[in-house]
Design brief:
The chain is mainly beta. It has one domain. It is 9% helix and 30% strand. It is built from 4 helices and 17 strands. Strands 3, 4, 6, 9, 11, 12, 15 and 17 form an 8-stranded antiparallel beta sheet that branches. Strands 7-8-16-10-14 form a 5-stranded antiparallel beta sheet. A two-stranded antiparallel ribbon has the order 1-2. A hairpin with a 2-residue loop joins β11 and β12.
Length: 301
């Protein structure tokens, strides 16, 4: 089943269903630079931390949120109908929002793509353009952290008996110099829900799918840092490719730098589609920092 995502409209003063289409993409998909992502240099200053130290930092918080950030992702534990109005009101206030609204899908550790034997960065898991259903298209990767298209296609689709979907809201708090941030070194929003923790300290096996739209006014940046797989598409084109089971990695999308190749024009709105998978113990890091002040959720099918 799919979910309709609702957001409070400041102009109407009531809840309205947002259904905004994708802007027409350029005729040819852009080609990546040497970084394999947006052509922007990596900001991986801490990527070389050893796994033991990362596990220790992940264990500093038992509530799933870094102690420096008291905002928590909010699940609709009823599992249907859309995100609760109270969550939207808190996240958005009277303006278009600086929260990320999406669907969390809980999996069991026995799924063939979770707790994989092969680990490491796995570039090339997905195609450079979104599929017609606004989902990533499986391409196989290079490291063997997945088992094939059939298993991967379950990551971001509701499959009875395989995953359990829950609407989720991830609030972004105001940072310095006009930025909006969510930061957790222990990101476990699925703890105690869905299939449960399966005897582990946390629920480590879930995916996150977010479809949103933002107005491009010039100068926008979007940075993600975390583990494991992350795929971010702008205007339907892959801008961040962090596939695989790995320690936290970071990428920044500079919208001005990709504007020509990705078909962005100042003054128009464009889609940003975000896909995340947490597939293996013992870490779960999730940090978003962006200068985008307005996110408008789009329906998730």
């Amino acid at each position: 089943m799919g979910f309709n995502v609702f957001v409070k409209s400041s102009s109407l003063g009531a809840l309205a269903l947002i259904a905004i289409g994708c802007a027409p993409p350029p005729a040819q998909p852009p080609q990546f630079g040497v970084t394999g992502n947006s052509g922007i240099p990596n900001d991986d200053g801490e990527d070389e931390e050893d796994e033991d130290s990362m596990e220790e930092s992940a264990g500093q918080s038992d509530d799933g949120v870094d102690s420096a950030n008291d905002t928590t992702p909010r699940l609709d534990l009823g599992g249907g109908g859309g995100v609760d109005e109270g969550v939207i009101d808190e996240s958005y206030g009277e303006d278009c929002g600086n929260a990320l609204i999406g669907i969390l899908r809980d999996f069991q550790s026995g799924h063939p793509d979770f707790e994989p034997t092969n680990v490491g960065e796995d570039p090339g898991l997905v195609a450079q353009t979104l599929g017609a259903d606004f989902k990533p298209v499986y391409m196989g990767g290079t490291t063997g952290t997945t088992t094939g298209a059939a298993g991967f296609d379950q990551w971001f689709r509701d499959v009875s008996g395989v995953n359990m979907p829950f609407p989720i809201a991830i609030p972004l708090t105001t940072g310095e110099a006009g930025t909006y941030i969510y930061d957790s070194r222990a990101f476990f929003p699925a703890d105690g829900v869905g299939f449960g923790n399966e005897g582990l300290p946390h629920n480590f096996h879930f995916t996150l799918e977010i479809h949103t739209e933002f107005p491009y006014t010039g100068g926008e940046l979007f940075t993600f840092r975390g583990d494991d797989d992350v795929f971010v598409y702008v205007n339907g084109f892959l801008a961040v490719d962090l596939g695989g089971v790995h320690l936290p990695l970071s990428r920044t999308i500079d919208m001005d730098a990709i504007a020509a190749a990705y078909g962005l024009e100042v003054g128009k709105s464009y889609t940003l589609d975000f896909f995340f998978a947490e597939r293996r113990t013992n870490l779960s890091n999730f940090r978003v920092e962006t200068s985008i002040a307005c996110f408008v959720p789009r329906p998730i099918g």
